[in-house]
């Protein structure tokens, strides 16, 4: 039997030592509660399971050239990230409840927290959350808890996938969720300011936003603070290699999806929700936090800290219910950021922006293809308006080997002809050129 | 050990970024840019490899040590599952592909895995259908409570309270509370099971449901489980099965048959996916027939032509609780594990897990206190209460003594209802030899507690650091590195 160590002889020996039969051990399950075994297939050998799964994996189309983003990106991952994250000492450990034998995990998380603080220019970070969407939800709950207010304003340029999650999570709660329609691809200042009042806990915006547009939210931070509300900025961490950090804009909480920091796309997960905040909010933060301390001999060490916020202590009064988070994904992010370093992250972010602007020029030169917004600045993603239905065009480009972009009609009415195009450092000038030719050909036919 | 920031040397590079084949053609407005690059460390690739290799060696892990952390099911994580999760056909798959026109056809393999996993988990638990979206056990709990709320809303029930036994994990009350319910705690009886009489007294029309871990955190299977389900159903309540301890009953009993309406499973516990130092996990939620309509969007269905599709049109659903399909990479690993164990393997899992736990209990109950002298399921709860009273050696001291003997300690001080608790869960993947060595260490520690308690108060002494000052960590809060010299 794979993965079960004891032999039949050992089982007999152990039962003899206990003085009971195997049936006796299960006697607590009442007769009427027993099942007659499982109707499952017989177990497979490793050889069989690998060939079966290789065949299943082969049914997934990974040969498309990806210009598909929407918050989830095809970035390059250095080999050392997986090599180190695959060390059994990391991935087969659990939450570091016993710090003396978990210094590896604890110090790595402390370093991760430090890197997130430096990226976002905020003072405190937790050890991770599930993903970018639940991170916004947790930030919203944290803001309501901190302000004791119940209204939350969200601009609709925040990733619509995350906005529908917020709607699900708040359905049974006493929360007024106000969604403002974006203004030509940017956060709608007029609508947000009109909604902002003394019952507002937080304003939630995103940079770069779902359309790829970038902006400075300093004015919104000031407005939120005048109303004693918090500004929550969801951001794309890789872009912070060059873009102004949420902390520098005056944001109180920065969250986002950390997938761009060394995590494979893996059909939607596991991913990494990150969160950083102003120090005064640290006791309202959800989830694990690692802090530095020392032992009796004065040696530096790390422990889980401020645990009085958490479910295992506070139970129904905890700041969140989160227990397991995405520690191994946070480790991958720390590895990625360590390998790229200060200059590598800046160069990668700049390269994404430059390749995107090249693609923008090539694609908007095609007759009938227009930029949808008047917005001047974007990072590595932009919205094009096509002469026809975008879903249809994208479908036809799949046949040519391109995932050319994301059709925005799925989430925005009136954008049936709009396509969101993402370009990462992995896309070459040649691939961009081929996409332009293929798009032009599709539009001509 | 140095921090990675302290190893940084200005100008050093770890990677060569991809070739620049286009010109810098946009110059973003300076107002949108940061003034200096983020202050990340500057290291060579070898620096990074040495640093994190050294860190990894400061961990105990299942691969390196016996790790009987109670209620966490620290079983061996098969290497083949890691290999398969790295297959490019899975790892390089963009989650938005199915939302493109005819995109479902691009991801048939991934949809097949999720659909077949749904069927496997239905058979294992007796539930009518699963969502794979919850990204951890606690996330599954929240999803389950949201389904409970959707059910009551659809029935126009006015329910305010969720009942939870006092032996439950803290995530249960926390999940119920953040979903908008009040929580009432049901006490345990002398046997360590939820007190049935108290449950009857607390039951009224305000009760939305009950969250029950079965076997519970004391390793006890509640013999009145049918009756409990009937009681909750009598007020149109929903009974929630916390699957943290499913390992004990795999192939022996099914929560669905027992009368539970909602279950969450911890794939990182029962189905051998790695714990990752604290995640990622996965917490699929299964429901009974009458709750299927409330499952989150989307759901994978198999069409008559044998292809798989995502169903989004679910008007009574609780909505979206994850951006896509949950932690697909984790679901995939658990799928591999179930295929490899198969029918007979899963039944052997429960038997060996329960056998190993009872063997430990039988061999240690004369030197440590036990809650009740009856067989346990997959884990046993020992107590150092007598040792604490008589020689001042507490559960924490025993835990630290175990570290010096090469064992990861059990869960200590949980469940909260047992003083000086040590919750030991060996799992089925450990051999008798390993368990015998652990038992010997535990007996030696009990003796040492009486002979030389001071020796235990100073443990551990074999680790890179000794006991750490947790009070200082909270008081002089330092949760991110800031260089004192301003040179980092």
- What does the radius of gyration of chain B come to? 25 Å
What spatial order of strands do you see in the largest sheet of chain B?
1-7-6-5-4-2-3
Please tell me the CATH architecture of the largest domain in chain A by its name.
3-Layer(aba) Sandwich
Please name the fourth-level CATH homologous superfamily of the largest domain in chain A. Type I PLP-dependent aspartate aminotransferase-like (Major domain)
Level of helix content of chain B? 25-40%
Largest protein interface? A-B, 211 and 206 residues
Q: What's the count of strands of chain B?
A: 13
CATH architecture of the largest domain in chain B: 3-Layer(aba) Sandwich
Based on secondary structure, the structural category of chain A is: alpha/beta
The CATH class of the largest domain in chain A, by name, is Alpha Beta
Compressed to H and E, one letter per element, the order of chain B equals HHHHEHEHEHEHEHEHEEEHEEHHEEHHH
Shape of chain A: globular
Alpha plus pi helix count of chain A: 15
Biggest sheet record of chain B: 7 strands, mixed
| Counted beta strands of chain A | 15
């Amino acid at each position: 039997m794979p993965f079960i160590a004891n032999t039949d002889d050992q089982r007999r020996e152990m039962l003899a030592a206990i003085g009971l039969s195997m049936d006796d051990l299960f006697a607590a399950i009442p007769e009427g509660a027993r099942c007659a075994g499982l109707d499952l297939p017989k177990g497979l050998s490793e050889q069989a399971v690998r060939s079966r799964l290789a065949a299943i994996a082969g049914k997934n189309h990974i040969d498309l050239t990806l210009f598909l983003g929407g918050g989830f990106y095809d970035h390059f991952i250095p080999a050392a990230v997986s090599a180190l994250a695959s060390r059994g000492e990391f991935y087969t450990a659990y939450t570091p409840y016993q710090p003396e034998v978990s210094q590896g995990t604890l110090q790595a998380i402390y370093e991760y927290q430090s890197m997130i603080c430096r990226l976002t220019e905020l003072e405190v970070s937790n050890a991770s959350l599930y993903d970018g969407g639940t991170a916004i939800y947790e930030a919203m709950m944290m803001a309501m808890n901190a302000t004791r207010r119940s209204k939350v304003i969200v601009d609709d340029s925040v990733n619509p996938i995350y906005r529908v999650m917020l709607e699900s999570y708040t359905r049974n709660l006493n929360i007024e969720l106000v969604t403002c329609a974006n203004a030509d691809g940017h956060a709608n200042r007029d609508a947000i300011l009109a909604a902002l009042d003394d019952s507002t806990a937080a304003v939630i915006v995103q940079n770069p936003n779902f359309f790829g547009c970038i902006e400075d939210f300093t004015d919104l931070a000031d407005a939120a603070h005048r109303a004693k509300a918090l500004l929550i900025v969801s951001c794309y961490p890789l872009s912070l290699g060059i873009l102004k950090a949420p902390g520098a804009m005056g944001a109180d909480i920065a969250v986002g999806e950390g997938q761009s920091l060394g995590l494979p796309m893996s059909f939607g997960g596991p991913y990494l929700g990150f969160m950083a905040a102003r120090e005064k909010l640290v006791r309202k933060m959800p989830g694990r936090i690692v802090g530095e301390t020392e032992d009796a001999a004065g040696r530096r060490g790390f422990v889980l800290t401020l645990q009085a916020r958490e479910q295992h202590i506070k139970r129904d009064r905890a700041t969140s219910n989160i227990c397991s988070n995405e520690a191994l994904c946070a480790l991958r992010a720390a590895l990625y950021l360590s390998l790229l370093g200060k200059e590598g992250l800046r160069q990668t972010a700049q390269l994404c922006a430059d390749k995107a602007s090249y693609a923008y020029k090539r694609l908007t030169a095609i007759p009938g293809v227009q930029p949808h917004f008047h917005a001047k600045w974007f990072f590595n993603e932009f919205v094009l308006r096509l002469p026809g239905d975008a879903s249809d065009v994208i479908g036809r480009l799949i046949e040519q080997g391109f995932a050319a972009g994301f059709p925005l009609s799925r989430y925005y009415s009136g954008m049936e002809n709009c396509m969101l195009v993402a370009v990462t450092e992995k896309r070459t000038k040649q691939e961009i050129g081929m996409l332009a030719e293929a798009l032009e050909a599709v539009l001509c036919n | 050990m140095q921090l990675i920031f302290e190893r940084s040397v200005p100008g050093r590079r770890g990677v060569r970024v991809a070739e620049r084949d286009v010109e810098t053609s946009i110059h973003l407005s300076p107002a949108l840019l940061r003034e200096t690059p983020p202050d990340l460390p500057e290291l060579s690739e070898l620096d990074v490899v040495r640093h994190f290799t050294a860190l990894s060696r400061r961990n105990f892990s299942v691969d390196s040590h016996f790790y009987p952390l109670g209620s966490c099911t620290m079983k061996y994580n098969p290497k083949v599952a890691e290999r398969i999760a790295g297959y490019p056909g899975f790892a390089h798959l963009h989650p938005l592909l199915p939302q493109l026109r005819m995109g479902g056809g691009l991801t048939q393999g991934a949809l097949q895995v999720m659909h077949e996993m749904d069927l496997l988990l239905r058979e294992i638990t007796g539930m009518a259908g699963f969502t794979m979206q919850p990204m951890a056990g606690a996330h599954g709990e929240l999803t389950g409570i949201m389904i409970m709320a959707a059910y009551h809303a659809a029935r126009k029930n006015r329910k305010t309270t969720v009942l939870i036994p006092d032996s439950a994990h803290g995530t249960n009350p926390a999940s119920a509370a953040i979903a908008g319910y009040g929580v009432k705690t049901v006490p345990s009886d002398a046997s360590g099971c939820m007190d049935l009489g108290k449950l009857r007294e607390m039951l009224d029309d305000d009760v939305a449901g009950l969250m029950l871990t079965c076997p519970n955190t004391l390793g006890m299977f509640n013999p009145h489980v049918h009756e409990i389900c009937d009681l909750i159903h009598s007020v149109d309540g929903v009974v929630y099965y916390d699957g943290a301890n499913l390992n004990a009953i795999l192939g022996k009993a099914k929560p669905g048959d027992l009368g539970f309406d909602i279950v969450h499973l911890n794939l990182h516990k029962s189905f051998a996916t790695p714990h990752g130092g604290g995640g990622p996990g996965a917490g699929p939620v299964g429901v009974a027939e009458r709750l299927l309509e409330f499952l989150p969007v989307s759901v994978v269905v198999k069409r008559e032509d044998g292809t798989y599709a995502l169903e989004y049109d679910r008007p009574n659903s609780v909505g979206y609780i994850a951006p896509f399909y949950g932690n697909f990479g984790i679901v995939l690993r658990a799928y591999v594990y179930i295929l490899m164990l198969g029918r007979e393997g899963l039944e052997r899992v429960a038997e060996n897990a329960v056998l190993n736990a009872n063997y430990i209990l039988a061999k240690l109950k004369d030197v440590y206190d036990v809650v009740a002298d009856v067989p346990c399921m997959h884990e046993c709860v020992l107590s150092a209460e007598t040792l604490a009273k008589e020689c001042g050696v507490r559960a924490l001291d025993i835990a630290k003594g175990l570290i010096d003997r090469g064992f990861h300690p059990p869960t200590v001080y949980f469940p909260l209802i047992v003083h000086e608790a040590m919750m030991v869960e060996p799992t089925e993947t450990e051999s008798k030899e390993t368990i015998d060595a652990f038992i010997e260490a535990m007996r030696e520690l009990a003796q040492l507690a009486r002979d030389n308690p001071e020796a235990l108060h100073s443990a551990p002494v074999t680790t890179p650091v000794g006991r750490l000052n947790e009070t200082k960590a909270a008081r002089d809060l330092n949760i991110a590195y800031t260089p004192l010299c301003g040179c980092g």
